[in-house]
Design goal:
Number of helices: 4
Largest sheet: none
Radius of gyration: 18 Å
Number of domains: 1
Distance between the termini: 32 Å
Number of strands: 0
Helix content: 55-70%
Length: 137
């Protein structure tokens, strides 16, 4: 059985793909801002978050604050870069969304609902970026 190679599709770009990538970039900017603000809260008032006892990945809340602040700034910058719809920006945005999801996975015991929400939004961002026709070369 012979395999058929996929040919590039000529024609207009999908409005759904373009709208999805703009929405994903907007969500990334919001995720980055919210994550940076959460980081600032942890840095300024480390008693805001309740630490679960006997958590395997026990990191000081102030340490988590710095991690969230740095990752949040990077994710927001990646979202701005994604608005340009370039391949390098898409690859960077996917990597940053993965990093943000991993950081929030380890943050679940500190703020479960928020961390799971951010993970879900990052998964949506990755899905929207990888849709066919979303990124122009």
């Amino acid at each position: 059985m012979a395999t058929k190679e996929l040919e590039p599709r000529d024609g207009p770009e999908s409005g759904w793909a373009i709208g999805g990538i703009v929405f994903a970039a907007s969500i990334m900017i919001l995720i980055g801002i919210y994550q940076a603000l959460m980081g600032l809260v942890a840095i300024v008032n480390d008693e805001f978050f309740v630490v679960a006892p006997n958590y395997t990945y026990d990191v000081d809340v102030t340490g988590w604050g710095w991690i969230h602040l740095i990752v949040g700034i990077l994710v927001a910058a990646g979202g701005v870069g994604l608005l340009y719809r370039k391949l390098w920006a898409a690859a960077l945005a996917i990597a940053l969304a993965c990093l943000s999801a991993i950081v929030n996975f380890f943050f679940i015991p500190y703020y479960p609902f928020w961390a799971i929400l951010i993970i879900a939004l990052n998964v949506f961002v990755i899905w929207a970026i990888t849709r066919p026709g979303a990124i122009a070369d």
